[in-house]
Design brief:
Helix content: over 70%
Largest sheet: 2 strands, antiparallel
Structural class: mainly alpha
Strand content: under 5%
Shape: globular
Number of helices: 22
Order of helices and strands: HHHHHHHEEHHHHHHHHHHHHHHH
Radius of gyration: 24 Å
Strand order of the largest sheet: 1-2
Mean pLDDT: 77
Number of strands: 2
Low-confidence stretches: 1-9, 11-22, 552-570
């Protein structure tokens, strides 16, 4: 720990010396100082070009509900119950939900403070700097596109189950839904998944206000189907199926929680719509926390019903809920659930495709991504971003199976959550006269959490006191943030118990990241390298923040006292 602290201090000092000579590190860490000015400009020019502020909190909950419930109940529940947690699937969802709740408070503060499209990308750009924002924004594009691919593949699986229920003697048609190559496990073709992605992309081209009406109708249908599953399925619950309750042990529960995190990225999708909300200071926090509360309750109930109806090794991985009713002899209910699942997953695919173009749009507006992605049509729709997002998602949905995709999504989501939680510490505590203190402290805290998490996960034979010994520095460091005076208190939504709650969220998020398989982390690393090449060859040269810093003095959104970065350095 002493070595890590000394190394980081030397590194920051060296970077500071280099920055004074050539200034290139200053470009990497420059912040989006004009974000709040853009918010005020949007309020005054709601009828101008760009995204339209037309959404209210109930519509945000509808989008978040559609995104979250479809991915959680119909996609990952079978995989986690069968392969990772068994009946303790309930606790995997609760752990993932608890971590999501901690991050949701931080998301709400940022979304109300900086109500622009782009989600964690925009929030990190305001507080942590351009290179961190690019890292998060680029991985968010991977997260949303693959989410749409996963849900589209699951949609095709439920369509296959429905076809098999009505036409059991026509297996030749199932090749349209899922076909594989013998001996090649990592490649599986799903032509029908392209169909649902194409339909949803077409709907998004008509504009957000009209498409939200379609989404609200689908959401009501989804809720009815889920309530049917919970109420009718409860009559077929056999408590003997819950024994053993922890067949894979505690490690299985936490590994399952990492995969289940894919199920809670719905409120993240809500924040991508911040630039299109009428009253963001009120609607965004209500939409985010309301979404999380509703879906967490539904996850708990469905987990109990699913694992009670079918013994966990027999739970189907691809279409768990529909097949569960078949296994208890309720074919008509299975067909009904398949129809409802198609409706739910259609809405989920729609909302996952909705988030990605908004991230592209905000990155393009900031000058970090290609200009064509920042153009909108008369309906306020980012056309090119919508089309390319749909094509990207269709390619992955057509070629890759579910097991190759879900962990990558969880890692991208958890990284975004971690950065937002660290950003709350910076937003509240950073002194503009000493701008490096709080970010450095947050960075060192992440290092301590990484060491502790790796010990907990991999040192399986270490006694309990040894694990607690590695946890103690994280606890002490959490309370050390009270040394810094509070510089800025938000006037809108405030995250409670700062710095304790953001630090808890960072630790839990990192623990879940390191509990996932190493190859998923490697794939995210390779994707990040591709993104960095785009940033260094295009984004850093066209950055809007760079132009504003050289031409227009801006108000620092962290401490609105009129100082610019050069005055801070002096």
């Amino acid at each position: 720990l002493s070595f890590s602290f000394s190394f980081c201090c030397c590194l920051m000092k060296k970077m500071s010396l280099i920055d004074r000579k050539c200034g290139w590190t200053h470009q990497l860490w420059r912040r989006n100082l004009y974000a709040l000015e853009e918010v005020e400009l949007n309020k005054q020019n709601e009828e101008g070009p760009g995204l339209k502020r037309v959404l209210r909190w109930w519509e945000l909950i509808g989008y978040g509900f559609a995104f979250t419930v479809g991915s959680g109940i119909f996609v990952v529940s079978g995989q986690v119950a069968n392969e990772m947690a068994g009946p303790s699937l309930l606790f995997s969802f609760l752990i993932a939900g608890f971590a999501s709740l901690l991050s949701a408070f931080c998301y709400s503060e940022f979304a109300a403070h900086v109500p622009l499209s782009g989600s964690a990308y925009t929030f990190s750009y305001v507080t942590l700097g351009e290179i961190v924002a690019w890292f998060i924004g680029w991985n968010l594009t991977l997260e949303y596109a693959i989410s749409a691919s996963v849900v589209a593949r699951s949609w095709s699986n439920y369509l296959a189950a429905l076809w098999n229920g009505f036409f059991p003697d026509s297996p030749m048609w199932l090749g349209l839904y899922n076909s594989t190559i013998p001996g090649v496990e990592w490649l599986a073709f799903s032509p029908m998944s392209i169909v649902i992605i194409g339909i949803c992309t077409g709907l998004l081209m008509f504009g957000l206000k009209d498409s939200s009406k379609v989404n609200n109708i689908l959401t009501l249908v989804n809720l009815s189907v889920i309530l049917f599953i919970i109420i009718y399925g409860a009559f077929f619950v056999n408590p003997d199926n819950w024994v053993p309750f922890f067949p894979y042990g505690a490690s299985g529960v936490f590994t399952g929680a990492g995969t289940c995190f894919f199920s809670f990225i719905g409120f993240d999708s809500v924040t991508t719509l911040a630039g299109e909300v009428k009253n963001p200071q009120f609607d965004l926090p209500v939409g985010i926390i309301g979404t999380l509360g509703i879906v967490s309750l539904l996850y708990v109930l469905v987990s109990l019903v699913l694992t009670g109806m079918v013994f966990y090794p027999n739970i189907d991985v691809n279409a768990p809920l529909a097949i569960a009713f078949q296994q208890v002899g309720q074919g008509w209910a299975s067909n009904l659930v398949s129809i409802g699942s198609l409706t739910t997953l259609s809405a989920t695919t729609f909302v996952t495709l909705l988030g990605q173009p908004r991230v592209f749009y905000q990155m393009s507006v900031d000058g970090l991504f290609f200009e064509i992605f920042g153009r909108t049509d008369k309906n306020g729709t980012p056309v090119m971003g919508t089309l390319i997002s749909g094509a990207f998602a269709a390619f992955f949905a057509f070629t890759l199976p579910l097991s190759s995709l879900t962990n990558m999504i969880s890692i991208g989501t958890l990284m975004a959550f971690t950065v937002v939680c660290a950003g709350v510490l910076v937003l509240r505590l950073q002194d503009p006269l000493k701008p490096a203190q709080v970010p450095l402290s947050a960075f060192l805290y992440i290092i301590l959490c990484t060491i502790s998490c790796l010990v907990f996960i991999h040192a399986k034979h270490m006694p309990l006191w040894g694990n607690l010994l590695f946890l103690l520095p994280c606890v002490i460091y959490t309370f050390s943030f009270y040394i810094f005076p509070v510089i800025k208190v938000p006037t809108t939504f405030k995250t409670p118990l700062v710095p304790i709650l953001p630090c808890m969220a960072i630790y839990v998020n990192l623990y879940l990241i390191y509990s996932l398989d190493i190859w998923s982390i490697v794939r995210v690393f390779l994707w990040t390298i591709v993104g960095l090449l785009i940033y260094f060859f295009y984004g850093i040269k066209h950055s809007r923040a760079r132009l504003h810093q050289s031409n227009i003095p801006s108000i620092d959104p962290i401490n609105q006292d009129g100082f610019d970065d050069e005055e801070f350095d002096e």
